[in-house]
Please model this.
Amino acid sequence: MASAFATVAPASTQTPLETASSNDPRPRNQDNRNTFRGGRGGPRGGASRGNRRGGGENQRANGRPNQRARRRSSTASQLAAPPVPPPPGLGGGGSFGGRLTKDAEKGEGDVAGKQSEEGQDAGVDEDVEAEVCFICASPVVHNSVAPCNHRTCHICALRLRALYKTRACAHCRTEAKFVIFTDDAMKRYEDFVEADFQETDEVLGIKYEQKEIHSDTLLLLRYNCPDETCDVACKGWPALHHHVRTIHHKVMCDLCTRNKKVFTHEHELFTQQELRKHEKFGDDNPGAVDQSGFKGHPECGFCRQRFYGDDELYVHCREKHEKCHICDRRDPVRQQQYYVDYDSLEQHFRKDHFLCADQECMDKKFIVFESEMDLKAHQLEAHPNGLTKDARRDARRVDISTFDYRTPHQDHRGERRERDGRGRGRGRDPNTEALPQSTAQPMRRDELAYQRQMAIQNAQAATARTFGGQLTSTDAYAARPSGGNQSTVTAPRNNASTNTSFPAMENPNLNPASNTTPASLAPSPALTPQEQARRLQHSAVMDRASTMLKHDQTKISDFRSQVSTYRTSDISASQLIDTFFSLFDVSSANLGKLIKELADIYENEAKRNDLLKAWNDWRAINEDYPSLPGPLPGSSTAAGSGGHRVLKLKSSTAQSSRSAVSKQGSWQNASNSNPFPSMPAISANRAGAGRVGATPWVGSSSSSRPPPATSRPTSRPPAAGKANTSEADAFPALPASAKPNTMIFGLTRGTVRWDDGRSGGNPVNPWGGPNGSSSGAATPAAAPAAEMDAEPEFGKKKGNKNKKQTLYKFG
Amino acid sequence: MAQKRIVKEYSELQKKPLDGMRISLPSEADMHQWQILIDGPKGSPYEGGVFTLHLSLPTEYPFKPPTLSFKTKIYHPNVTNDDKGSMCLGMLRADEWKPSSKIEAVLSFAKALLLEPQPDDAVEGGIAREYKENKKEFIKNAKAWTKQYAKK
Model:
């Protein structure tokens, strides 16, 4: 056996040559195997046979490859740095010999096969070759056979079918209504008969030869918790988000969970801080072995909204914002530039192109021309009677406004002017030239005359150029549809903030209310940096809120009172969110930002979690997540029995080097030597010295908390019945102090009954760190709302606190 | 999932390099970005030049296709003549990509394209037209660019 493998490895380098030929959809027998199957033989053969015998062998059959997978992952990480040792397990050539071996082995019978397997496992280390899936390069646990007789591991097949929703063969793209999941590494598709199948999944189009494969597959499709040591499966995304937040105190990236095509347990868990980094910069983590190549979710510069990827951002920009077709045609190479809306684009048209000033055309929109000649032609054709007097007057007025008003997104003007600057009347309606001079035309008469002359001279050339430009640009453009990268939107955000439909977050002079120091709070003279920071947060929240409320004083005070009612537990978090919805007339994304900021400033852990939870529930109910096609609710009770297997499965599909240890290490690494200069505060303050904005947990450690205003329910309210059983199972395992943080919530708003009686025993806040007592006296429970009104007035600060303070004073 | 497959392909290519190509990682920690130096194939107007290519493997590789771009300016109908230098390869299109396609095949294909441009599949229409209608001129231009930008 061992010698057979020794020959396998080097031979496998031929594989690539065969790859090209694998494009051939013809089912081929021998070729087929040579191409896709790795060192056939002992280990796998043995394992699968073991599996088929069922019962006690299963564990073994499942366990083995996983051990290998783990071993391999360590190899993989070693491989990352050249010089590179020969890769283990290239699924490739040499399988012919392997097959012979297997045939021989068949003769010897199963026992021999298994013995050889054991010998193999005992004697050899990571060079041991199990067969490796051609697609994912991981050891094959179960085989998937398509009608074209191409094989992959069952995980890849499932990935394609369940997540990518394609039934195409990974090798030849042949569509297959059904594939077979089997442990038989050799049997051809057509040799299976209906009786061979224990289970059939019509939805996914999978026939299972073994019940075990079926259950293994179902395990993968559950809403498994991504935590590697956790075997909880939830009923759906909301429950999983809740589980992750309460049990592991982590979050998952919303964009990833909605868009990323990975199994649920392959998602990543983040702290808030990590999540921010993930969104902004991606998981790029220099020096770490767990690079994913992900560079962050791009953001729309107008809406400040992030999208999963460039493609999604592109779609958004195409739908929500405007592009100048003339500029694009002229210079397809240049970066994509968008205008926030048609008004903004129209300004650009007026300024840089030749917009027909006729009211009818203005209403139609996009009646704009690249050259004066084209415009004139249009006017002759469409408005034979010439422009009305009104239109002419309009045109003149427009000129004035465009001359005086220059927005940054029109910066490229100069460059363009150079390119075709042949002295044509820039962005000026030709008709206005005939009018008497006005202040709108800052040109002397001789200049005007010269321009007019040039315009006539260039008239012919202009059309010719236009035509040519069209030809080249359209091809080239089509080839680069997703040219959008992070800088896709080049228009600066100032532009967005002038538009009232977007909240101007940086608007400095808002919120007169926050400047009034209410009597309720006597500002304590000696405030800790934590508090100062917290006050900044308060004012930030108020700023945002008042902007979103368009500075409507009654609404702002309404908002204020709602928040304080929540603080005093007169209303529940979900009620609060309900009132927010009636109060604010903004998108849920914007409201979400506000709520998250608001939650951040609650000192009371329970309050904060409550609010976030209620918000997430609301979203979970009101926004949809992609659903997994797998088994649904009800199967979660299987978590108990399947737990072990789940963990194995998880590790088998886990990305090569994402062991808990390496992850830990690499994140650690990142925080020590933070590669991103823009975030120095975070790494510097890791220790918890009062970093508030980004780290709610740390912020909460600033004072020893008085008893939480709401008591936790002592028993799960009936309304919370939706929370699944496996979660309930998981609770007892938690340390007692953590429990109070997991506030019970109903998935439907309004059904939760809060115990108004104090349930005594208020928990020790697990986050209350050693510096907890430092400012306890200065921060009563009433602080959050009260401080919202406070105007900080402190003298000296240090470090980055100082900067923040300065920023605030600006406002 | 991507990691293993990429590591595997990378080590295969290190062990058995493609003729006239040298592959390296600009950042050793990031397996998703490859740098490839291709010698202009013999008999093509690019002969004598060395072209730097950049291969970017998406997070979802091999289920999503990689992208290939020329960092060295090249006069070629299938390579965009801008700072992106995007290369048009049929097999890299999302709807034609097969998870079983390997990077090696992609690179071989790119090299083949240097030897024989496909003007019907062009991204640079002007160059394609010239290639079809006035090959002499095309060769002259391509050689000039090679000399100017892709000097060894």
Summary: Residues 306 and 587 of chain A are 14 Å apart (CA to CA).
